[in-house]
Specification:
The chain has two helices and seven strands. It is α+β, with helices and mostly antiparallel strands and 111 residues long. Strand 2 and strand 3 form a beta hairpin.
C-alpha cells in the first residue's frame, strides 16, 4: 500500500510531498524534498495509516482528500515494505538494500 500527497506547509516549505508506505507492521510516513528524484528528508513510523494521515495533515498541510494511491511495484520502496527494517542498510553506491554489519538491533537508550 502506497499513498502519496503534495505537502503544503509554510513552516516546512522544503518538504515537497509525503508518501505513506505500508509495512508488515505499521506504516512509514516518508517526507521528500523531491519525490521524482527520490530525495528523502526523513521518515517516521506509525502503527496505523490514520495516525500517519493525521500527522501529515497537522504538520505538513496534507488535506484528507489529497491522497493518491500509487501502484505497488517491486522497487526499493517495495523491498523496504516487505523486509524487516532492522538488519538492513541502504548502500548508496550500489543503490541496494544490504544486510547490516551490526547484529545488535535493540533500541538504543537516549539517556
Amino acid at each position: 500500500m502506497r499513498l502519496w500527497a503534495k505537502a503544503n506547509s509554510q513552516e516546512l516549505p522544503n518538504i515537497e510531498s509525503i508518501l505513506i508506505l505500508g509495512l508488515t507492521d505499521g506504516v512509514l510516513l516518508i517526507r521528500y524534498f523531491s519525490f521524482s528524484k527520490r530525495q528523502v528528508e526523513g521518515d517516521h513510523w506509525y502503527p496505523t495509516v490514520n495516525e500517519a494521515k493525521r500527522d501529515a495533515e497537522q504538520v505538513y498541510g496534507v488535506q484528507p482528500t489529497a491522497w493518491l494511491a500509487i501502484r505497488d511495484e517491486k522497487d526499493e520502496l517495495y523491498q523496504l515494505s516487505v523486509m524487516p527494517i532492522a538488519g538492513y542498510t541502504f548502500d548508496a553506491e550500489s543503490a541496494e538494500w544490504v544486510p547490516s554489519e551490526s547484529t545488535d538491533y535493540s533500541p538504543k537508550s537516549r539517556h
